[in-house]
Amino acid sequence: MRVIVLGVRRGRLEIKQFLRSRESVVFTLAFPIVMVTIFSLIYPGSLASGVRYSQYIVTGMIAAGLLATGFQGLGMQIPMERDRGVLKRLAGTPMPKASYFIGKILMVLAIGAICTALLLAYAVLFIGVTLPTDPARWLTFAWVFVLGITGCTLLGIAASSLVSTGRGASAVVTPIALVFQFISGVYFVFTSLPGWMQQVAALFPLKWMCQGMRSVFLPESQAAFEPAGSWELGRVALVLAAWVVIGLALCMLTFRWTSRRDG
Questions:
Q1: Is residue 52 classed as helix, strand or coil in its secondary structure?
Q2: What pTM did the predictor assign?
Q3: Number of domains in the chain
Q4: DSSP for 140-182, written as a single string
Q5: What sections of the protein cross the membrane (predicted)?
Q6: How far is the C-alpha of 66 from the C-alpha of 156, rounded, in Å?
Q7: Which domain holds residue 166?
């Protein structure tokens, strides 16, 4: 109970610190909206299947926003904290180490929820996106959201150990995130990508997050245009849950509280 209570307090502090960084707030919240706007203007019409492109791009940008908040955000933030000695000092306090990770997870969940809510509100008000009315679809949205952002958060924590300094974090993490976005059906119809690219994307969580979100916001008829001819929600859940386990294992094996120069 003490670990959870301290983790919640740490989470509140993490959220406050994030909100005080105006550059991070503006980029994180505005990036999905800007990208949806740009692609909606470039492709104002409908897909061959009769679905507006704006409806399709929103599904991918929700998933990409979760990736950016969890994987990309923590992959850059934690190395900077490590360089400044923040992690070293925290490790020397009585606070349980697990509380630090609980705080990060709560921060990512809160920011991810705000980012998604703003994107959906903007999409409905300004680009004509329609929201589902079936409660079952919102239930699917909830578990795809939770599994997806949890996996991205754990992978972001693990990725923070890939770089030697905080300055190099952006150069390592950002290209990885961009590649995932382009091969996973965020900006383009997934089945229009080369077959080998689809197979590579299927190894990673973002492709399945996008597919899960498409099952929520696109008509049921669109399932026929998926690679397997269906939404494969059982497989989506299985793959995302597997990446949560993989991410947790990588965190436990690779996370460092001190920088390499500290030994």
A1: strand
A2: 0.92
A3: 1
A4: HHHHHHHHHHHHHHHHHHHHTTS-SSSTTHHHHHHHHHHHHHH
A5: 25-43, 55-74, 105-129, 141-163, 170-190, 236-255
A6: 11
A7: 2-262
